[in-house]
Each structure stands twice: as structure tokens, then as C-alpha cells.
Write a structure and sequence with these properties.
The protein is an alpha+beta fold. The chain contains 20 helices and 11 strands. Helix content is about 65%, strand content about 10%.
């Protein structure tokens, strides 16, 4: 029932956005040609909805060497998965989806089709490498949840409405920009273009929301047809497989919006799982899940994601198990999270990030309002100089805030950083780590300047920045990065946690080599240059 309400609410709101734009245009301009645009887009999307499964079949077969199998062949690979498919399709009275296995070691699963009658479920070989039979079956059950709930149709309708809003915004803007008609008509066209674009942006986030809701319900469906703990452990192991797999992640990137897990979320959880499993200490993984649930930054970062955060999904599944993998109420008592501190830090971060943007918006608006009311002098150059100065000063302020220089770097290990519930993508914490460099941040790329660090507790991505942008990084990756690989090192820098955790390097040293990194300098230099330019323009404007 709640899934139906969420779908109806989202589609209804998106439809009201579209209706408001079209009705307003029809009344104001008597412009019925817009209905032709709507008709063509809807017709195109209906055709694509019907034929795209065939096109996708060809694409995955050509580019990813997909092997199509029947249910009997799946029984030889994963008996539990075949049993779940038979149970679900018999219960809901639809035929077995077309099944495929892709030759890729990244663990992934996804489904597509027009409806139940022509659904496909594809998985990679990596899914069976990282998961046991029960866990693989739970992933198949999750994908069957999408098929059974007819997510193809709902998401196609939602995306079509959002697409129409964007096309209308572009069409109206171009019509107004080309001119024609009186000023009142042009102003109205611009107004409707802006409104349609605002609805388009809002619509995108509504589609993200709807996608996350439907992922929750696919998880619930899996928990009803398999033990919920199996999918919880599957999600964790898939996360690790994403990070550990030797294959490139092209397929993961291509399918992450419809796959069982978002790739960037998976890399973060996978790193924590790897570290926790090595130590046989699951507290860091529990803390990472509490970060997903409690930290306001996690909630904000989730807004632009098609999948819920892994910690939230595991909590949702644990609530459905009689013997949950994690007792989240106990975890909250064990790790006493200072909610007040979390939100104080969050709002402070938001203020630092937002203040320059608010000023950059307010300055031209206030000036235009002053000109309109006759209370502001005509000083375009001076206002432009003030605006540029705020831009440069704001960039410097954000850089100083992001990479604090005061205080010494605390001795940390990787697991301490990954388990930090109070971590932020905006305000870094200074850290010093001892371990070794095990490779480049981007495996196989010989010019890559980023490195992968490992200590006794786990692994962490190190981000290097030369004092000379681009070329300096290229030179370091080509000529110097190799000197640190397989060497014991001490790394100093700043820890940040956004969609994935990383260290912004300040220095890196081994017994034979050392280097400095300047992740904290570029924003200051760029901001100072812009600020100086702004002051010069402001001074020139005041003298004119």
C-alpha cells in the first residue's frame, strides 16, 4: 500500500508540474503546438519502452559477452536462486524472466523489460564469486521484486514527464531568445521557461526519491521470499567485490542506476567491510552504518542517488528478520552518537558553503531592485567588481575552512577514519598514517597521481595535488609515483568523507623518497587571484 501511495504521489506531483506549464501556455498564448511536442515525446517513449529490451539484449550480448541461460542451467550454478525464481513466478503467475550471465568479475545484478511478460534478469559471474548460494538467491529475489512490482512502467512514466519538462523549458527559452512579439510576450516565455526548468530540477529529485522507495520495496520483497539477513550480507559483500574486483568498472557505471547497488556507495562500504573482516572486529562496519543513518551529510548526499544508503537498507532488512545481523537499537546505545554535535557541525558546514553563494545571488538582485526603484546609482563596473571580490573571497574562505592548518595531525589508522560518525565532506580532519603504498588510485593508469594506501587495519585512497595543476600531477604520476609503490610510508593530510572517503595529501615520505602535496593551496591561489581582480575592477568602478 505504501509503495502504491509513494508512486501515485510522485507521478501525480510530476503530472501536476507538466499540466501547470501546458495549461498556462495554452491559456496565455493559445499555443496548441506544444501538445504536438508532448504527443511525439510520449509516442517515442512508448515505442522505446516496448522495443528497448530487445535493443538492450543486443547491447549486452555484443559488448559484455552475455551468456543467455535457462532455468535448468541456473540450477546447476545456483540451486537456491532457481528455486526462488520458480516460487515467485508461480505465486504471481508470470513466466520465468529471460536470464543472462555477464562475464565480469564485478558483482552486479539488474533487471529490465517492458513489464512482467518480457522481463530480463542479468547477473555477472562476480556475483557467484563473492556470494554464497543463499545470498545469490536473495539478490535474484530483489530483482524479481522489481519485476513483480512493475517498476519498469512506473519509472518510464516518471522519466518521460521529467524529459518533457526539460524539452519545454529549452523550447520556450530558445523561442524567447530569438525574439519576436512584444516585450510582455517575451517576458512570459522566459518566465514559463524558468518555471518549467525549476519543475524539471524538482522532478529529477522526485524520480530519485521514487527510485529509492522502489529499491526499499524490492528489498522487502526479497526479505519475504528469502531470509532478510541473506540480502544484508549480500549487499555488504557486493560492496567489497566492487572495490576488490580486478576488472574495470565500465559495466558497473553503465548499470548502476538499475543495478542492485550504487557503485560509489559500494566502494565505501566495501572498504570498511574489508578492513573489519581482516580485524575480525565488526564495530567499524556498524559505525559506518550509523553514519548512513544518523549523519545529516549522509542524508543530503543520498538525495541525488537512485539507491538508499547501504546502512539504511541493512537496517530496513534487519527490522524484518527474527535474528537480525545487526541490532541497530543496541548499536545506538553502544556507540553514543552526539546528535547535537552532528547537527552543529552540519549547519556550520552549510553556512560556510552557502554564504558566498547567497551573497553572489543577492548582490545583482539588490542592485537591479535599486535601479528599478531609483535608490541605487548606475555603477555597473563597481557592482561587477564587488561581485568578483565576493567570488574570490568566498573561495578562499571555503578552502581555509575545508583544510584547517592549525594544530598538529593526529596519529590515526584507516579503520579509525572510516568509523568516524562525525566525518564531513566539507570540513576535513588532520591525520597522520603509517603503512605502505600498494598501488595507484586508478589501477593500470601509469600517469595517475593518486595512490592506494594500506595499513594493518585497512586501505585508503590518497589524493595528490601538484603545485602546478594538471601537468604537475601528470609528471608526478609518470616519474615519481612508482617510487612509493610497495614502500613503507608516512602520509600526512586531511581526511574527508563524501560519497566515498579519501585523504587529501599534505606530504608523503618513505626511506628513499618524499614529496609535498598542495590540495590546500590551489583554492587559496585561485581565490586570491579572483579577489585581486575583483578589487581592481571595484576600484576602477568607483573612480569612474
Amino acid at each position: 500500500m505504501r509503495l502504491a501511495i509513494a508512486s501515485t504521489f510522485t507521478l501525480g506531483l510530476l503530472g501536476s508540474f507538466l499540466f501547470a506549464i501546458l495549461a498556462g501556455l495554452a491559456v496565455f498564448f493559445q499555443a496548441f503546438d506544444f501538445y504536438l511536442i508532448v504527443g511525439l515525446v510520449v509516442l517515442f517513449n512508448i515505442i522505446m519502452w516496448l522495443v528497448s529490451p530487445k535493443i538492450s539484449d543486443i547491447t549486452y550480448s555484443w559488448f559484455y559477452d552475455t551468456k543467455w541461460i535457462d532455468l535448468e542451467e541456473l540450477k546447476q550454478i545456483s540451486p537456491e536462486s532457481a528455486e526462488v525464481i520458480e516460487e515467485v513466478t508461480e505465486k504471481y503467475d508470470y513466466k520465468t524472466p529471460k536470464l543472462g550471465i555477464i562475464q565480469d568479475s564485478n558483482p552486479q545484478a539488474f533487471t529490465y523489460g517492458s513489464d512482467r511478460w518480457n522481463a530480463r534478469i542479468l547477473v555477472t559471474e562476480g556475483l557467484f564469486e563473492y556470494l554464497d548460494d543463499n545470498e545469490a538467491a536473495s539478490v535474484y529475489a530483489h530483482e524479481l521484486g522489481h519485476v513483480t512490482n512493475r517498476d519498469f512502467i512506473i519509472m518510464t512514466i516518471a522519466n518521460t514527464i521529467v524529459q518533457l519538462l526539460y524539452l519545454i523549458a529549452v523550447r520556450l527559452y530558445r523561442t524567447a531568445a530569438r525574439g519576436g512579439g512584444d516585450g510582455r510576450r517575451k517576458l512570459a516565455l522566459f518566465g514559463f521557461a524558468v518555471l518549467s526548468y525549476v519543475f524539471y530540477i524538482a522532478g529529477k529529485y522526485l524520480v530519485y526519491y521514487l527510485s529509492r522507495v522502489r529499491e526499499y520495496y524490492a528489498d522487502k520483497f526479497a526479505g519475504e521470499h528469502t531470509e532478510p539477513n541473506y540480502l544484508s550480507s549480500a549487499l555488504i559483500k557486493i560492496s567489497y567485490g566492487i572495490m576488490d574486483s580486478p576488472d574495470n568498472n565500465d559495466l558497473m557505471k553503465a548499470t548502476e542506476s538499475m543495478g542492485v547497488m550504487n557503485m560509489e556507495q559500494g566502494e565505501e562500504t566495501g572498504a570498511v567491510y574489508y578492513n573489519a573482516s581482516n580485524l575480525q572486529d565488526w564495530d567499524p562496519l556498524a559505525k559506518a552504518f550509523l553514519f548512513d543513518i544518523k549523519n545529516p551529510w549522509a542524508k543530503l548526499l543520498e538525495l541525488k542517488s537512485t539507491h538508499p544508503l547501504t546502512g539504511k537498507r541493512v537496517k530496513h532488512l534487519c527490522s524484518r528478520s527474527s535474528d537480525p545481523m545487526f541490532d541497530f537499537e543496541q548499536l545506538k546505545r553502544k556507540f553514543d552518537v552526539d546528535t547535537g554535535r552532528l547537527y552543529r557541525n552540519f549547519f556550520q558546514d552549510i553556512a560556510v558553503v552557502s554564504l558566498p553563494k547567497l551573497l553572489l545571488t543577492a548582490i545583482p538582485l539588490a542592485y537591479l531592485a535599486g535601479l528599478y526603484t531609483g535608490t541605487a546609482p548606475s555603477a555597473h563596473i563597481a557592482v561587477a567588481g564587488l561581485w568578483i571580490s565576493v567570488l574570490g573571497g568566498g573561495k578562499m574562505m571555503k578552502t581555509v575552512y575545508k583544510y584547517p592548518l592549525k594544530g598538529s595531525a593526529e596519529k590515526k589508522n584507516v579503520i579509525d577514519l572510516l568509523a568516524d560518525i562525525y566525518a564531513s565532506p566539507v570540513r576535513a580532519s588532520k591525520a597522520k598514517l603509517s603503512g605502505e603504498i600498494i598501488g595507484r588510485g586508478r589501477a593500470g593508469y601509469r600517469f595517475g597521481s593518486d595512490l592506494m594506501f594500506k595499513d594493518q587495519t585497512g586501505i585508503m585512497h590518497l589524493r595528490y595535488q601538484s603545485i602546478v595543476p594538471v601537468l604537475g600531477n601528470f609528471w608526478f604520476g609518470w616519474r615519481h609515483a612508482e617510487k612509493f609503490i610497495d614502500q613503507a610510508v608516512e602520509a600526512k593530510g586531511w581526511f574527508l568523507r563524501g560519497t566515498m572517503p579519501w585523504i587529501g595529501l599534505r606530504s608523503l615520505s618513505s626511506e628513499t623518497s618524499s614529496t609535498n602535496s598542495w590540495v590546500h593551496i590551489h583554492g587559496l591561489i585561485t581565490g586570491a587571484v579572483i579577489l585581486t581582480l575583483g578589487i581592481l575592477v571595484l576600484a576602477a568602478g568607483l573612480l569612474v
